[in-house]
């Protein structure tokens, strides 16, 4: 068990040094001791950030579900793998044991096989947070199919773009989903999406809400009867270490969403190892991550990382405000949750409500609190620490990305002393670097720059589906021999990192990564709109909210502005999803542009944030007069 479970700070430094001095030897030891392989690797690491090409454990053969399920059966067969806490409090929670989960995964895998899904095929999963979602991921992995989960809050347009980009032939969905006191017509969204996806042959539907839906004959089938008939065991497909495990889309600063491709062995090793250490998970602990499996946090730290450790992982279908603002704490008390992992936006929303919602519940089971997705501000950190952790549970502010697959910069609880708003130290094996404007590395402490990583770690995404050039351009071209994260960071006097936010045009709203381009495209499709630009501005719950600057066509000038605002947000809801709606929309006669025609978002960001005392250099603007007008009418 050497090095697998770090228990004090000196040990962290020792293991860290070892992991960067000889990464191959370090990861080889972890891989050897803690996982089951069908065949050992020939080579631990092969990498070249120029091409870029990264291969971990080349030559090894395995199936990740044998690591997440089969190997636990002799010792943990009757242990709960998944606790399912439904949206509605009158519905009972489910406890699914490892043995039951294994059976459910095998049945679903057989149903997929029966529908012609083969190794390497892509399967689109558009499901709410119900057990079938976890089962679907694992069922794909069982047979070597590549899952592409699309968050079930995305619109039909966003869904069809993703289905077509990775050429999925089959979609798993449900009739609907429960979210608080609402139910959402997921199947209707899928039907609309599929009008633009001629390649989809089958839709398998989970019955969840019992709502009235249309089933297209020949294409759509209810899943449950197929599962009931399917054989309860399924031989695991033997995969190569570098075979793709899944595609997960993330926003870019420009263009279409990027289908990040994660492969099998490295992803498994890194998510399992980080899970064990970052949450100090011990056998019989109950671990709860509130993310949706539609995001990377759910993939790595609801499904794969916990299950690879034989942990009990809780899936919550609902929302923090239903039936009231005490729901999270009610669930913690009810299931005696030991590790709780959530997003700053949820903490800020709950901190606005009456403290009684927290104080009412017994939270003494909690040992570790986690935060992810965006910077956690000091106020939210203290509220979390005082009222949830009772100053007794360390907070792990974990910085990472869809692209990194696993947690990169984080305290280790009970090991690393924490400082509010600091993600603190690089995790084992991670070699961060801060870069200046001249693409030179900034050494030493008390410095600030652009955050890069110098050396590959096992779970780095290997490519963008169908577009390796974009992968290189986005992540490996800004700085030579470095992975560029898109974030800014500072390193303080003791070497702790604090993430300062995105340095590109990605905006993080309520922890969701939104690119400006698809939102602007959606707005521009409105018949009255000529052009638009989106920026983020600070918001006390969402972290950032969206501010849109819109130029109308002449034909739109006579239209009622409030109606236009509603229509524009409707347009965004249809094209991207409700999470991308604008909080403020200002109609303008022009947008500040450079001589080369690029919108100067820096100026728009400052105006939207009410920070106009120093707009910086505007000398390169083609149309400086428009800035005054925008400032005068700012909302
Ligand atoms: O800007 C950083 C922010 O979220 C971005 C990654 O978003 P996504 O790929 O959706 O993954 C989110 C969940 C891993 C990062 O580039 N971010 C994530 N965690 C933190 C953070 N910013 C500050 N502190 C964090 N702990």
TrEMBL record:
EC class (word): ligase
Keywords: Acetylation, ATP-binding, Ligase, Nucleotide-binding
InterPro entries with a match to the protein in the record: Ac_CoA_lig, ACAS_N, AMP-bd_C, AMP-bd_C_sf, AMP-binding_CS, AMP-dep_synth/lig_dom, ANL_N_sf
PANTHER family hit by this protein: ACETYL-COENZYME A SYNTHETASE (PTHR24095), ACETYL-COENZYME A SYNTHETASE 1 (PTHR24095:SF14)
One Pfam family named in its UniProt record: AMP-binding
CDD domains: ACS
Recorded family membership: Belongs to the ATP-dependent AMP-binding enzyme family.
Span of domain Acetyl-coenzyme A synthetase N-terminal: 12-68
Domain AMP-binding enzyme C-terminal residue range list: 519-598
Any one GO molecular-function label of the UniProt entry: ATP binding
GO biological process, one term: acetyl-CoA biosynthetic process from acetate
Enzyme Commission number(s) of this protein: 6.2.1.1
Ranges in a coiled coil: none
Protein name from the UniProt record: Acetate--CoA ligase
Domain AMP-dependent synthetase/ligase positions: 71-461
